[in-house]
Q: What sequence folds into this?
């Protein structure tokens, strides 16, 4: 009895005992031609942020489509099955032009002669409608697997709420609002802390139910009642709320007996800009400047310093410096950025100004350019003239004495 064998090619399987050899060979050749490389391949489609986006925060989604094809005529970006970007190769220039481009979407395609590469797309001003699936398509026939952009739960705000009834009981009310992605857990846990100086005086966990919403998120609010004390010290009280691994804080000045309650939010600010003496740097003809900011805690993870060097009216250098913010036992952290300014040989009268900007505040230092340890040309000529005058006077004195 003849055994039944199988030939497997791609996704197709034939039983060899039931097909003539010529027909089987023809089908194999046709199958190889179908998969000969004319189709596009999308090995990787990525979305950023990969963990989702927080509604209401300035976020841009990046869409990356990798491809490999020998027939690159058009590119389409699909949002939930709807075309939001369509790029078609022009016959005259062979460059890609936008046939369809929805609001806030944009795509950049590499050179038309490239058979493989990456198409980078982005979507600005993300909202609930953007929390859906995305696909890439080449030449109106090859479509990638879909990727889904999700909504991420986040902390929205921490506010001091005016409440007359609570004020009469010498209490202040604070509301912490989170935006919980829907669908999500049935409850959200808020973590409240009260710090007086370096000491934690109160701590509370508050579980709040999440109700339905017609949006992609639900607003969930926890309230905290802070009872005012009679502390006469100068240490401030910090009310902080943590949810979804984010923290906001409000600094409260404790009232004294008989005085009105005062409340304000700690504000980050520029503290100082200093010229630092550094012997090693000076030997290399470099000046060092330190720009220090006071960052309210808890705050962002990093601070961006903006440095500028102006020579007269011309900007000769510009730098952005990101510096991490570390913890502190006070309500603020000192964060410092250093700038190394290389001294030049400019003999003009224009001064050089070093400027540092952070938290929308700017400090400047005016630097008179040194000349590598030598006087300038003008001052050197003046010095030489004085030497000649002194020498002439000495000659007259010697001549007078010799007579």
A:
């Amino acid at each position: 009895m003849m055994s039944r064998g199988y030939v497997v090619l791609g996704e197709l399987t034939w039983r060899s005992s039931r097909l003539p050899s010529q027909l089987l060979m023809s089908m194999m050749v046709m199958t190889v031609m179908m998969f000969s490389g004319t189709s596009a391949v999308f090995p990787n489609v990525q979305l950023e942020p990969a963990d989702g986006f927080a509604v209401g925060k300035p976020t841009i989604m990046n869409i990356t489509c990798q491809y490999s094809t020998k027939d690159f005529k058009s590119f389409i970006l699909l949002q939930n099955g709807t075309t939001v970007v369509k790029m078609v190769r022009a016959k005259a220039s062979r460059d890609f032009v936008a046939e369809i481009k929805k609001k806030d979407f944009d795509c950049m395609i590499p050179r038309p002669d490239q058979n493989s590469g990456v198409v980078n797309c982005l979507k600005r001003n993300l909202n609930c409608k953007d929390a859906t699936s995305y696909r890439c398509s080449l030449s109106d026939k090859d479509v990638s697997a879909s990727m889904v952009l999700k909504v991420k739960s986040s902390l929205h705000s921490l506010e001091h709420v005016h409440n007359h009834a609570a004020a009469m009981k010498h209490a202040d009310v604070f509301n912490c609002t989170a935006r919980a992605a829907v669908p999500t857990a049935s409850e959200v846990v808020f973590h409240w802390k009260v710090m007086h100086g370096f000491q934690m005086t109160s701590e509370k966990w508050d579980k709040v139910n999440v109700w339905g919403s017609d949006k992609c998120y639900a607003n969930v609010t926890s309230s905290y009642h802070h009872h005012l004390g009679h502390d006469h010290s100068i240490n401030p009280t910090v009310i902080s709320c943590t949810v979804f691994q984010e923290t906001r804080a409000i600094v409260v000045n404790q009232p004294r007996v008989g005085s009105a309650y005062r409340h304000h939010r700690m504000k980050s600010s520029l503290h100082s800009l200093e010229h630092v003496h550094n012997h090693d740097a000076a030997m290399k003809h470099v000046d060092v400047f330190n720009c220090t900011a006071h960052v309210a805690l808890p705050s962002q993870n990093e601070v961006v310093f903006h440095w500028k060097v102006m020579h007269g009216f011309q900007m000769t250098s510009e730098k952005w410096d990101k510096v991490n913010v570390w913890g502190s036992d006070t309500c603020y952290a000192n964060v410092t950025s250093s700038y190394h300014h290389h001294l030049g040989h400019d003999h003009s009268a224009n001064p050089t100004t070093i400027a540092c900007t952070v938290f929308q505040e700017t400090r400047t230092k005016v630097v008179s350019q040194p000349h590598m340890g030598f006087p300038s040309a003008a001052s050197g000529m003046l010095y030489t003239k004085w030497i000649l005058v002194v020498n002439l006077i000495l000659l007259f004195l010697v001549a007078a004495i010799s007579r």
